[in-house]
Amino acid sequence: MMLWNRLKYLRPAWRRNQEREMREELDSLVAIAGRAELGNLTMAMENARATWGWTWLESIIADIRYSFRSLRRQPAFVAVAVLSLALAIGANSAIFSFADALLLRPLPVPDPSALFDVSYTAPDNPFEGMSFPDYRDLRDKSRSFAGVATYHLTTLAAATEATAPARIRFTVLVSGNFFPVLGVAPLAGRAFRPDEANAPGQAVAMISYDFWRQYPDSQSVIGAPLRLNGIVFTIIGVLPESFTGLDRFIRPSIYIPLGMSQRLASAMSDPLEDRGRHNLVVKARLSAESSPESAQAELATLGASLEREYPRTNHSRRMSVRTELARRIQQTPQMLELVKMLMGLVGLILIIACSNLANLLLARARARSREIAIRLSIGAGRLRLVRQLMTESFLLAIFGGAAGLFFAYLGILLLQTWSVPTDPPNILGAQLDWRVVEFSFLVALVSCLFFGLAPAWQTVRMDFVPALKDGGHGTSAGRRTLGRDVLVIGQIALAMVVLIAAGMFLAGFRRMLVASPEFRVDHLITLDTAPDMLHYTPDQAKTFYRQLVDRVRLMPGVADVAMTEALPLAPAQTILTVVPEGYQFPKGRETAVEFGSSVDAGYFRIMRVEVTRGRAFTVDDRAGTRRVAIVNQQFAKTYWPDQDPIGKRIRLDKPDGPPAEVVGVARTGHYLVVNEAPEPYVYVPYEQNPRSQMTLIVQSMADPASLASPLRETVRSIDPNLPVFNLRTVATLYESRATGTWLQFLQMVGTLGAIGLVLAMTGLYGLIAYNVSRRVKEFGIRVALGANRRDVVWLVERRGLLLACVGIAIGAVLTRVAMPMLAAGFRGLGSSPPVVYALIPLALLIVSAAASYLPALRAGGLDPLRALRDE
Amino acid sequence: MELLQGTLDMLVLRTLRAGPLHGYGIAKNIRSASNEALDIEFGSLYPALKRLEMKGWIASAWETSEHNRRAKYYKLTAAGRKQLLREHSKWADFVSAVSRIMGPAPEVKG
Known about the structure:
The structure holds two protein chains of two kinds. By secondary structure, chain A is an alpha+beta fold.
């Protein structure tokens, strides 16, 4: 009731009524007692109104109104301030969205913070999955969790009908309780029933929202058939749009019960009963009573007891409970480095922008010192004035935040174009969502405190008598601008740090560009297919590939054909376990895992991988003849330093595996990323080491892209159900892997550098221009007394250069401290070429000179008579 | 004489116990009842009236005065009566506590 009463006092109509009522009452009393007797009635009414209890709100509204009016009078000031803030906030928000997509965004499930990741920590793998029997034990025995679910991500060939070509799609095999534990309910249809999830499993599937939208008739999807790896599934449910999966860069289309593993793999034994098969991801929802620490303690005991019980499969494996963020950081530590570096850079930019704002506000405070002085002298409280000034800063921050969102949106659009042409696509989920909006306004508010408070305080602390006397200009000059000088120096110093970071990227990037790909990129197109997905036996797969190569060779426009297990610089690389003859492994290890792939005889020719010593593979390296291998220079250097690798033998897979004789040495190339350190690599001949998934490389006579659909048709002519994926030219792949991402990265850091520079220079220009306007009289006198105009220009210019030099010197010190932190974890960035350190300060000095030259020119061009008269 | 803080509300309630009065009448009444010792400024009385009205302890209505003039008359409500009782006993406790400490006025020597 009380609250209702209070609220009613907010209604304007009610208030008007009350005011009238009060005025009438007071008038009537004046008639009775006389005005002198009653005293100050305005005050009485004002105080009576205050008892309504909303004066704080009224005064805030009044502050906002007043701020609007006073800001509207200075559109240029507002424009510069809002633009500065918007650039900085936009950069911060865009980078936040990027960081969110890379690391930070919580899982798209209700109460994500209670969901923990459980995995094994093994000596050679800090991140091993669990086997289904281990998961079952964990699920049934642990007390710490309200629910424990597990899943396994894979790719399957999906087709809607028997005759349609299959498309490769990310599919998640899930435990029966997967969706209940996550707290995700289907949008349409139903989730899996427990009996469907158990072995041997029912062929039922749930599909993602995105996949559902691809159906032409979305109404009849429930109950429709879906062929996965040739097995007919029934679609029973559609997931909501908000659930995009549990992996950051992957949006799975299909969810099916784990119980289907055996049939999908057409395996003899049930993979779910194999305790040694550590390939499941486990997510557990913590119960309300337990803590992550108690859960970790419980699982340590459980893991130890499993290790005792099953020493063969669970030897030296410990169970770890991690938060989702910890898991992501541990999986991709380089992302954390990237996020830290970028957040660091945009943080510096925000500081630069805030200094700019503080500087503008200080200058403005002097310009309106008369207004402030008047308000102080008629009795306005200093705190009240601070509040008023802070309201203005707050409005600026809100405008800056809103405009910053616009810049952030542009940045996010740019980020969304980042992609690697893979099939099915990987996704960088940078998006403008509520998290970004909240972040932007949070940054705006924090920066508002940062740039607004000190100037506001300084403004109202002034001595208002002289301000009133001399019309709001020039009191004790020197000390007053010291703070502003410091701000500008700081801006220049920070801008230098940001620019040097950008320069380092540029230099590192140039190195990558000039680095040769070490293989041919032109006139090549590749495609992947997966006969094993359609349950081909190894012999059938071999026949299929032979047939495919033969048919493609006869296609018009095809110059050459070859096959490889892994294409260099493709996002997925294959590895081989090898034991190089004569190499002394450190204690406890007896094999090495290196990049390597199975290639056919045409590979070295078509990819122009130079065999520097010995020979390439030939058609005679086939099953039944002596096993051979080719290593790259780095492999030879690593395992047989100062020895002739030709004739050495490598055992494959294990110490007593089949020996292969090294017959050639290939030039070292780039295999996973262009900026990697030289990596050892092993090639083995396909005919001796057949694989079930190979990449076909086709050399075209003309434009390789024109071969895309004929190639697809050729595969279909052999088996219409076979999925064809990663059909792309090598040039496209190389561009995106070697240059594309880096170019965009460079654009990003370069943009940050440019923003930093612009903001710092705005600050410098503003300060110098302000100084000139304050010293108009002095310059006028100097010119009148016969000073050379050049001297006046130099007088002003000198100050700008002095500030810039001090800023650059401090920036140099800061760079030495900050750069190792910023560049940590970036190969080829830490050691920045000296030219960067020389060029950036020089460029900064030149731009600073230009920024102070404009106001200097104005000072030099002053008409002494006018200058003196205006004062 | 300065008014002790917080006593104004009590005085207003007490004054209105005798019957409805308009704002100026309340001020005058307090002054005369205290033998001119308490000179309540109307400027501070008026907001107090509004505050008491908001709390529901007094109510107001337009009436015609003895000199045939319209004015707003305030009167005690039931809630106001209860509040006055509470304030009264609090005040009595306060007075007796303070006078126990102070005692009779000391003689000032020298």
